[in-house]
Automatic annotation (TrEMBL):
Domain Interferon-related developmental regulator N-terminal residue range list: 14-320
Protein name: Interferon-related developmental regulator 1
InterPro entries on file: ARM-like (IPR011989), ARM-type_fold (IPR016024), IFRD (IPR039777), Interferon-rel_develop_reg_C (IPR006921), Interferon-rel_develop_reg_N (IPR007701)
PANTHER family membership: INTERFERON-RELATED DEVELOPMENTAL REGULATOR (PTHR12354), INTERFERON-RELATED DEVELOPMENTAL REGULATOR 1 (PTHR12354:SF1)
Family of the protein in this entry: Belongs to the IFRD family.
Signal peptide segment: none
Domain Interferon-related developmental regulator C-terminal: 365-417
Superkingdom of this protein's organism: Eukaryota
Amino acid sequence: MLDSDDEDSSSAASSSTVLSDRMSVYGNEEMELNKDNLLDEAVDALFEKRGATREKALSRISEAFSSNLQHEFVEKKFATLLHQCLNSIKKGSSKEVSLASHAIGLLALTVGEGDNAREILDDSFTPLSQALKSGSESSKIASLLECLAVVTFVGGNPEETERSMQIMWQLVHPKQGSNVVTIKLSAAIITSVVSAWAFLLTTMDGRKLNPKDWQQSISYFSSLLDKNDRSIRIAAGEALALIFEIGILEKFSSEGEGSSDGSVQEGNKSKEGLMHIQGLRAKILNQVRELSAEAGGKGSAKKDLNSQRNLFKDILDFLEDDYTPETSMKIGRDSLNTSTWSQLIQLNYLKHFLGGGFIKHMLENDFLQGVFGFTPTKRLLGGEHHMSSAEKRFFKSPNSAANKARTQFLNKQRMLSEGKNIGHYAVNTGDGDG
């Protein structure tokens, strides 16, 4: 990673060739060490002044974290990686912001629940919020939203989750004021906001939500079902299905049946609210029915049209008969199954975020396995299986149980060998350890 344009471009062009050459010369363990070295170099490159150098480094980091579980690397350089990525979000180009956002999300999924995940959310929330308010490019906004959604999903409590959802909501419904500039949002940004918002809603308990805060969102999503953009309609449909599943409308209805203090005025307000909710539900049902049978428009892609029809047929079945779609996805020798809208939305969102690394993470990422209640066969059988490179490194780690037992054995040998030639003993021990 050098500063000159020529050196920087030639370095990037040859990196994959260098790695493949090393792979052909060295064994698997040596190859893993070289990968770790390349990752170290990529993090060091985040301190470089040239934006292009940092962008290339962030791409390599994201690729490494997507394709493998980088637990050992995280133990060494967690704080460094996080704060350099946050610096990129604060000062970098739109491309650098997008790459850094993705890297932070991957870092959160790698560390899983715990203190590190909370630190990621605590340190990232303000920079991400500020970047979302100041940005306008669709790809940049989408990456920032995905990052905020993922780090909140992993490390947030209910209050922090609502806080993140509120930040997302303000993008499509900015607070009214004399200093608020209203800009027309692209279809891509609206879709990203609705998808990220719904993804976080999957973690919330509908019984504890305030109805007054939700009536506006339901009306808004209903209005999105009438938009021309199909991606917006699909995202809004999934959000509404989730809202029905967690019982928010039912909560409205139950609270509307009585008044807060028994007064006639409050009772009338409650009845009006209940009638509004019932009317809104009937409207949404009609919209869903129409979209499930849409004939399609000029130039509409058949695949997208079929996706919309299938989705809204599922939503219609759910609203009318309480039937939720069941899905199954092959992960290695096993199947990952979903049976609720919440699980389906989580699965689709995380698949999209991880891309080609989703299968690898599902097979080895304890946090994601816990999210979906998925246990690979090798974990169940307890029988022989080929250890992954990560497992091999774990057993060689100074803190591993296997290594501690080995150390205890060697200590006993040293105690028995007191009085022998120390130099000769050291040489023999070196040979035996290799």
